[in-house]
Amino acid sequence: MEHIFKQGQPDAPTFILLHGTGGDENDLLPLAQVLNPDYNVLSIRGEVSENGMNRFFKRHGEGQYDVEDLNYRTDRILAFLSEAAEKYEFDLSKAVPVGFSNGSNIAISMMLRENTTFKKALLYAPLYPIEITTNKDFSDAQILLSMGENDPIVPLAESKRVIDIFSSRGADVTTVWVNSHELTQSGVVAGQEVLNN
Prior knowledge:
GO terms for molecular function: hydrolase activity. It comes from Staphylococcus arlettae. By secondary structure, this protein is α/β, with parallel strands linked by helices. The chain has helices at residues 29-35, 67-88, 102-111, 156-167, 185-196, and strands at residues 3-6, 14-18, 40-44, 48-50, 53-55, 59-61, 64-65, 95-100, 120-124, 142-148, 172-178. It has one domain (3-196): 3-Layer(aba) Sandwich (Rossmann fold), CATH 3.40.50.1820. The strands form three sheets. The chain has a seven-stranded mixed β-sheet with strand order 1-3-2-8-9-10-11, with helices on both faces. The protein has a two-stranded antiparallel sheet with strand order 4-5. The protein has a two-stranded antiparallel ribbon with strand order 6-7. Helix 2 (67-88) packs across helix 3 (102-111). The chain starts with a strand and ends with a helix.
């Protein structure tokens, strides 16, 4: 799996960077540097190509996920994370998914798995319009959700649905409302606050 790993300070947590549609493993490196330059960084490139654009899973259209492929890709990334943690010697239980758009969506899929133990996540412009069958307990998780009030891709109701996915399962959810489908300074500052809590 194409990726970049950057070593941080000893025993520091590790950012798992997950780019948006059409991005690559370089896109969120500046964000990680601003969020906390001491963390390790593992930045992953999505393996799916949609009209030449990198993605983490297939879809049938905007907001219409290929659920079978989503599950398959989620399994692949989780297996890769285990291998990477061993290879680069970082503690996967202290890893923090940081996603934008499509990257946030694969992060949610990862977090909903019963065998994952992410305690913090920073999710920018997420959309997760599929049925969820797990009642996984997130009461020990802190999650930032940065969402757009006028997002042309994610309707307001779908943003509220993402909030409910986590809050209804006990997570400590911090929400930041921005204008559109974007990563903003207010979202970055809120991310820093979640990391420092």
